[in-house]
Amino acid sequence: METRDLLGALSAWYADQCDGDWEHEFGVKIETLDNPGWLIQVDLPGTSKEGVTLAPESEEGVDGSWLHRSADGRILRVACGPKDLERAVRAALDFLST
Q: Cα angle at 90 between 3 and 54, to 5 degrees?
């Protein structure tokens, strides 16, 4: 999936959750990390993934490439290296769409 499609899919997932209430308390956050890298956090309450957990998983690559993901039933967290944002969005969507 191309970057545009990944962002479109994430945007569509977010829009599907918005019901007039959910978006006032929950949401999706994408921010930078100082190690360096990216962090995606997705609030799960009120979604089909509420209560679903994902044991911490890590992938280490070369040249600063890495990806860590986990879900505690309330928040999905995907963190990655500075050049791995597409991989992180894909990992988040994989969790959210299964």
A: 165
Adjacent-strand bridge partners of 77: 41, 70
Expressed as residue numbers, the domain containing 77 is 3-96
Q: Tell me the whole-structure pTM to 2 decimals.
A: 0.94
Mean pLDDT of 47-56: 98
Asked if 57 and 68 count as a contact pair (C-beta separation under 8 A), the reply is yes
**Block residue for tokens 């994430």:** 10
The DSSP H or E segment spanning 11 is helix 3-17
Distance between CA atoms of residues 69 and 93, nearest Å? 12
Could you give the CA distance from residue 36 to residue 5 in angstroms, rounded to a whole number? 25
